[in-house]
Structure formats: C-alpha cells, structure tokens
What does this fold into?
Amino acid sequence: MGRSPAGNLLLVVHTYVELTADRAAIGIISARYPSRREIRSYEG
It folds into this structure.
C-alpha cells in the first residue's frame, strides 16, 4: 500500500523480477482503493 503522486492511498499488487544487479522489471497486476479495514491496518 502507498500513496499516488496525487496523495490517494492505493493498494497495488505487483511482480518484481531482478534482471541484473542494477536492473529490475516491475509489472502491475492490479491497483485499487483500499477498504476501511485495510486503511486501519496500514496506518496502524
């Protein structure tokens, strides 16, 4: 979970593959607004 440049809280599911020591590939699977429960858990 994190914030977009506009400040919106988002839950993002992604893949991460390290290609070399200094290169990586990231693929976004989905992004959505979190539920109230998820926000409480994130903000702790």
